[in-house]
Amino acid sequence: xxxxxxxxxxxxxxxILDIKITQQNTCTPRKSLVDVYFSxxxxxxxxxxxxxxxxxxxxxxxxxxxxxxxxxxxxVSYNFKIKLSDYKKxxxxxxxxxxxxxxxxxxxxxxxxxxxxxxSKVITWYKAKGNDEEEIIYGEDDNTExxxxxxxxxxGFTSEIVSRGHEYYTDNNVVYISVDGTKGKAIVFGSxxxxxxxxxxxxxxxxxxxxxxxxxxxxxxxxxxxxxSETINMIEKNYEDKLSESEYFAxxxxxxxxxxxxxxxxxxxxxxx
Length: 273
Known about the structure:
Helix content: 10-25%
Order of helices and strands: EEEEEEEEHEHHEEEEHHEHE
Strand order of the largest sheet: 9-13-12-11-10-14-8-7-1-15
Number of strands: 15
Radius of gyration: 20 Å
Structural class: alpha+beta
Mean pLDDT: 87
Largest sheet: 10 strands, antiparallel
Low-confidence stretches: 1-13
Number of domains: 2
Strand content: 25-35%
């Protein structure tokens, strides 16, 4: 039985995808000039690099005007003579090395292996981590109440925020969500990538925190609640035994997984069972 990447097979929820795409550079960094294309702005600029062994197709972040915006390396040059002060630099490269088994779950793919798509890896696809100028501090109330996943009013969401969050959810803006034991993390893409932390246990959610820094429950948190509910229902219906074994799951949107890991002339393989 064979399938196309469009995932149009019948009963796809129960099919397994074994993906091995090794893209991350492990060589010694080489000084280079790299052309970086920013799809969000539709423009390209040249940057100096001396921290990474970059290749065409790498996802990078730079300093300067386009800091914080994801770029794609389209050309790498090793023979050059420049005045360094004339160039901004590449400051981070995304870790896009993926190897593991995924299970189909509507718009997302699920892994029950902590090493396949850990949060620490996926967040590098959207943010240059470790370059924040300000230290971020947040607390956690030991007496925080727990709420059912559909109890938006009880948590304190307004109807408008719930509606906007549902739009984010239906548009697949929750690109990543995971639960390790009871600790949950998610990435929601809006004007930029937002990180949401939460606690989930036995159908109850608490300690919702988003780094959009709103002083109220936001649409990103609402979107996460919708996505978490869908993912949990899918797991309970099809993969409950696997969750019981690992006490962990991570779900990533199909679009994000394949747009990031199969860009340009990168090697890799996909196996359907």
